[in-house]
Amino acid sequence: MEEARDLLELKDLIARLGLRDDRRQSPRYTMQIIGNYHIDQASLRIAQGRCWLVDISREGIAVKIKDAAVKEGMLLHLQFLMDAKIIDVTSKVVHIEEQDDGYLVGVRSLSARDDIISQLLQ
To answer: Phi/psi of residue 5, each to 5°?
Structure first.
């Protein structure tokens, strides 16, 4: 499986491989792209820091973080740099898996008509 190291490589990889629906909703692409995240709740920032985008599909993405404050159902705000432009993605946490070095957090788009890849590669 090919791996993307930044959003430009991811865009190229997706363009070459295409996106088709399969049994697991959509194919997944793995990567290690660093970004930032924050979580706001009741107008207060309860968590923020670095994140690593580790995989992506049309349905959602998985990011690795170190903060235990993230819970299912929360809105996770992500920022990634692409071509000197900051890409903002707001998504809903749908899965959290504790790992030795942090948490793997699965998120989905808030909009059924605007998938995660479209938001990242707009």
So the answer is: -100, -15
- Who wins on pLDDT, 50 or 43? 50
Angle at 22 between CA 64 and CA 6, to 5 degrees: 35
pTM of the model: 0.72
**Centroid of chain to Cα 92:** 10
Task: Pick the range with the lowest mean pLDDT from 8-12, 44-48, 53-57, 80-84.
Answer: 8-12
Determine contact, residues 63/95, Cβ cutoff 8 Å: no
* C-alpha separations of 101 from 4, 67, 72, 104 in Å: 22, 10, 19, 9
Which tokens sit at 91? 């998504």
The answer for residues whose C-beta is within 8 angstroms of residue 71's C-beta and 6 or more apart is 93, 96
> Is residue 91 within 8 Å of residue 78, measured between CB atoms?
yes
How far is residue 26's CA from residue 92's CA, in Å, rounded to a whole number?
18
Residue 11's SS3 state is: helix
